[in-house]
Specification:
Blueprint: E1 7-15, H1 23-34, E2 38-44, H2 52-56, E3 58-60, H3 67-89, E4 93-96, H4 101-110, E5 118-122, H5 133-151, E6 154-157, H6 160-170, E7 178-180, H7 197-206, E8 213-220, H8 227-239, E9 245-252, H9 256-265, E10 272-276, H10 283-287, E11 292-295, H11 301-304, H12 309-316, E12 321-324, H13 327-333, E13 339-342, H14 347-358, H15 362-379, H16 382-398
Parallel strand pairs: 1-2, 1-4, 2-3, 4-5, 5-6, 6-7, 8-9, 8-11, 9-10, 11-12, 12-13
C-alpha cells in the first residue's frame, strides 16, 4: 500500500534571506519531501524574496526590514496568508515553534478548520537575548509553550533533557503525544570524499595553515559559548611550545567584533584566524582543514539541553572532537574514542583536552575520525531524523 504523504505548514518567525541558521529548516524540509511528504515554510524576508528551488517550499509573509516591526507585521499578516492557503493546498498539520503558536492558532481560526492539528516543535530554550529582548523573549516563549501545552495535538522536542526541562517548568501537556528528533547532518554534503581537494589546499595556503595543526570552531560567534576561553587555551599551548597549532574560527553572531578583537590581542595573533560566515555548501571545505573540532559550550541549562549541529558536521567529516563534559555532548558521544572531554569551559581544561587530541599520531587520528563518521551515519543523518518526525506527524494526522 502506498504511503500517503503529510502536508505540513512549518511556521518560523524568520527572515530567510538574513538568517544564518536555516540549515536545520531546509535540510529537514528536503528530507521530509524525499519521504513523500509536502512542506511549506511560512516565513518572511528582509531584502530579497526567495527564488529558484527555495521559493517552491516557502509561503512568503509580507515583511518590513525593521526587526521589532517585522515581528509585529509577521504576527498580523501570517495568519491571513496561511488561512487563504490552508484550504487551497489542503494542509494536514501545522508545525509551530513556541514563538509562533499564536500565529498557528489564529490561522486555524481564520481558515475555519478548528480541528486542524498543530504540533509544537521546541528546539531550544531562550538564549543570548539582550536588552529589552532579555525581558520580552523569555515571557513570549513561556506564553507560547503554555498555548502549545493547552492546544497542540502533539509535542516535538530536540532532546530528552529539553523535554524534561519544559515538563518541569510547565507541567504535563493536555495531549501526551510526543517525539524527539535531534539535529542531524547531510552525509552527502559533509563528506571528505565529496570535498574538492584543490579547494581545500587553496584555502590551506590562503590561511597560512600548511604544516600546521588546525583547531577549528564554526557557528555562532558569541562569548557565552566559550570562545574567549578557547582562544586563551590555544594561546597557552603556544606558551608551552606548540607553535605549530593554529585556531580557525568562522561564523557570525552578536559578538563577532569582540571575538575578532580578542584574537588580535593574544601573544601570537597570527595563530588565531577569525573569518566571517561562509555559505553552507562551502562549510565542508573549511572543516576539511581541521585536525580537531571544538565544542567549548559551558555547562548552562540552555546548552545542556541543546543538540549542536556542528557536532554532527564534525563527525560526518571524520574530525576528532574536543568537547566540554556536559549532558548535550555526553548524550551523543558517550565514551567514543574520537572525543576528548574538557572537564569545564575554562582555558586550562580546554587546553589540556586539546593537548591530548593533538598528540594523536596521524594514523590514530584517522582511525578515530573514521569511527566518528560511522557514528554519524548510524543515527544522525537528516534521513534518520526525518523518519521520526514524519511518522509522528502521520500518526497525529490519523487520529
Amino acid at each position: 500500500m502506498t504511503r500517503r504523504g503529510v502536508r505540513v505548514l512549518w511556521i518560523r518567525r524568520k527572515q530567510l534571506d538574513v538568517s544564518t541558521s536555516n540549515s536545520v529548516l531546509l535540510e529537514m524540509t528536503s528530507a521530509l519531501e524525499a519521504r513523500g511528504d509536502r512542506v511549506k515554510i511560512v516565513a518572511g524576508y528582509r531584502h530579497h524574496r526567495p527564488t529558484g528551488d527555495r521559493a517552491r517550499n516557502v509561503l512568503v509573509v509580507p515583511s518590513v526590514g525593521v526587526p521589532y516591526a517585522y515581528h509585529l507585521c509577521f504576527t498580523a499578516a501570517a495568519p491571513v496568508v496561511m488561512a487563504r492557503f490552508i484550504g487551497a493546498w489542503g494542509a494536514d498539520v501545522l508545525l509551530a515553534e513556541p514563538m509562533t503558536m499564536d500565529v498557528a492558532l489564529a490561522a486555524r481560526l481564520l481558515s475555519r478548520r478548528p480541528r486542524l492539528p498543530i504540533v509544537m516543535d521546541v528546539r531550544t530554550l531562550p538564549v543570548e537575548a539582550r536588552g529589552v529582548r532579555s525581558i520580552v523573549v523569555p515571557r513570549a516563549y513561556s506564553a507560547g509553550v503554555g498555548l502549545g501545552f493547552r492546544y497542540a495535538s502533539g509535542l516535538s522536542v530536540i532532546t530528552q533533557p529539553l523535554l524534561d526541562e519544559i515538563l518541569r517548568r510547565h507541567g504535563s501537556p493536555r495531549n501526551p503525544r510526543r517525539v524527539i528528533w535531534s539535529s542531524g547532518v547531510n552525509l552527502q554534503v559533509f563528506s571528505r570524499s565529496a570535498v574538492d581537494l584543490t579547494q581545500v589546499e587553496t584555502l590551506r595556503a590562503q590561511l597560512g595553515l600548511r604544516g600546521k595543526r588546525v583547531v577549528m570552531y564554526h557557528g555562532a560567534l558569541t562569548l557565552s559559548r566559550g570562545l574567549g576561553e578557547l582562544i586563551a587555551a590555544v594561546s597557552a599551548l603556544w606558551d608551552k611550545g606548540r607553535s605549530d597549532v593554529r585556531l580557525v574560527i568562522f561564523g557570525s553572531g552578536v559578538d563577532s567584533d569582540r571575538v575578532k578583537r580578542l584574537a588580535e590581542t593574544v601573544d601570537s595573533p597570527a595563530g588565531v584566524t577569525v573569518l566571517n560566515a561562509v555559505p553552507y555548501e562551502e562549510v565542508p571545505a573549511y572543516l576539511a582543514l581541521a585536525d580537531v573540532g571544538v565544542l567549548p559550550l559551558p555547562d548552562t541549562l540552555a546548552w545542556r539541553t541543546s543538540s549542536p549541529i556542528k557536532l554532527f558536521e564534525y563527525m560526518a567529516m571524520g574530525i576528532p572532537v574536543v568537547a566540554t563534559d556536559i549532558a548535550a555532548h555526553r548524550l551523543v558521544l558517550g565514551a567514543e574514542p574520537f572525543v576528548v572531554y574538557a572537564r569545564d569551559t575554562s582555558a586550562d581544561a580546554l587546553g589540556r583536552a586539546l593537548e591530548t587530541a593533538l598528540m594523536w599520531a596521524d594514523c590514530d587520528r584517522r582511525s578515530r575520525g573514521a569511527r566518528a563518521r560511522e557514528c554519524a551515519e548510524s543515527a544522525f543523518s537528516w534521513e534518520a531524523q526525518s523518519e521520526k518526525l514524519s511518522d509522528f506527524l502521520r500518526a497525529v494526522v490519523s487520529e
